[in-house]
Specification:
The chain has about 450 residues and is an all-alpha fold. The protein is built from 18 helices and 2 strands. The structure holds zinc ion.
Length: about 450
């Protein structure tokens, strides 16, 4: 076992399960509870010693309703195999009474039977193979017995650190629990006459859990479910996620992932941890989501899905939905001033710059540069400004809008059409640092 597994299970249990377990709402956790968590880890490692690989399909075998059900989780655990990386039940809500710690599940019993059962009547290898095939055939009817390698970025049913068959629903409940943990974070971690080191550590853990859960939703977009079936049963091994579900995932990410909840930027926490730096941290976590969502690999996969099926969620749909969500607070509405806070301004700049990056040496085997170019043209043309009267804008928002349009313009037309006015012998130090001259772009 990993030498610092005690810390690892403490961190996971605290950020995932503590809202459902009053014993875990104050650190350190009791030896008794840590013992139970170690029992889970040990069972998993014994699984490896019996020859079992990780089965990352197993945690997507149960629905969110089942994960919140006391009787169901008591009997079947929180994932169909202890060999998954499902972790603790972050989906269950206070009052559900659901099991929180994984146990040996139906897939494990199935795998043990296939690997270790003896067939006294089978005299030859072929006879034994027939008996084994009967066991394997149960996978056709019972999805709890299916197997999948880790394939997180492409197949949302084979992700690590996830629970439940619907990542959007699971994350929706998970984020509620993260909100709850944020609410008792200071009380749970601070002790009289001690500093705030543990508070800082667990705050980072909480943000990490949030990133992981939102990442599970990202992977629905342009995702497919892979079935581990052979001929003749396996007819559609790679089955793209329904377009409607992909669209819902993007909407969820815009509303939840690209906005920071007040509970996680609460002065009660931040004033104890740092004077500044929060805006940068928030932007960094949102950039992780953006780059995971809009990159060549994912867009190219979506283009192929579009080529194969008219019902696909198209890359153009994604760019359209992102444009609407990303710049929704910049739309002019009569009698209503435009307000964009610092976190949103940072995000909007970062998105424009991300789009611009796809136009540097644009790939010719991808729709990505074309779609990025179209979005940048929309930034240039559709955001308020130009001839519009801007009385309703604060100086900061006015500058922000001009800046966004100028960034888009430069990305679309990097070669200046007229000589630059700065060719005087006086060179400001900040210009020197710019490194590239316009001719090199
Ligand atoms: Zn393992």
């Amino acid at each position: 076992m990993y030498h610092n597994i005690l810390k690892l299970v403490r961190d996971w249990y605290f950020v995932q399960a503590s809202p459902n377990d009053p014993k875990a709402q104050s650190l350190p956790l009791s030896d008794e509870l840590i013992g139970e968590l170690l029992q889970y880890v040990t069972s998993h490692e014994v699984g490896h010693s019996l020859g079992f690989r990780h089965n990352m399909k197993a945690s997507s075998s149960y629905t969110v309703e089942q994960l919140r059900n006391k009787e169901f989780t008591k009997k079947f655990g929180v994932e169909a195999s202890i060999m998954d990386y499902g972790r603790f039940n972050y989906v269950a809500q206070p009052g559900d009474g659901a099991r929180l710690i994984p146990i040996i599940g139906p897939y494990d019993d199935f795998a043990v039977e296939w690997g270790y059962r003896e067939f006294p009547d089978a005299k030859t290898y072929d006879q034994e193979k027939k008996e084994l095939a009967k066991i394997t055939a149960r996978q056709l009817e019972d999805r709890k017995l299916r197997f999948g390698d880790p394939d997180p970025a492409e197949d949302p049913s084979q992700q690590t650190e996830d629970l439940g068959s619907d990542p959007i629903q699971a994350t929706e409940f998970g984020l509620k629990n993260i909100d709850r943990v944020a609410g008792f974070l200071v009380k749970a971690t601070a002790k009289p006459n001690e500093n705030y080191e543990l508070l800082g550590e667990m705050y980072e853990q909480l943000l990490g859990q949030r990133r992981r859960e939102l990442g599970h939703v990202v992977n629905l977009v342009g995702g497919f479910v892979r079935a581990n079936l052979w001929y003749p049963e396996g007819k559609k091994i790679f089955d793209p996620i329904q377009a409607e579900q992909q669209k819902k995932a993007v909407k969820f990410l815009i509303e939840n992932g690209l906005r920071m909840p007040p509970s996680l930027v609460a002065p009660e926490i931040l004033d104890r941890l740092e004077s500044h730096g929060t805006a940068g941290r928030i932007l960094a976590s949102q950039q992780v989501i953006l780059r995971a969502l809009v990159n060549k690999t994912r867009i190219d996969r979506m283009s192929e899905f579009e080529a194969r099926s008219k019902d696909a969620y198209k890359p153009a749909d994604l760019f359209g939905d992102l444009f609407e969500g990303m710049f929704s607070d910049l739309r002019l509405q009569p009698g209503k001033p435009i307000e964009v806070d610092l976190y949103r301004r940072n995000l909007q700049r970062a998105y424009v710059d991300l789009l611009a990056s796809f136009l540097e040496n644009p790939a010719d085997d991808s729709d990505l540069p074309a779609l990025a170019r179209h979005s940048l043209q929309r930034v240039q043309k559709e955001l308020p400004g130009g001839s519009l009267t801007l009385e309703d804008l604060s100086p900061t928002v006015r500058a922000h809008l001009t800046d966004l349009r100028t960034r888009a313009e430069h990305a679309l037309d990097p070669i200046p059409s007229a000589p630059r006015p700065d060719r005087s012998p006086v060179v400001l130090p900040s210009r020197r640092r710019g490194a590239t001259s316009p001719d090199q772009n």
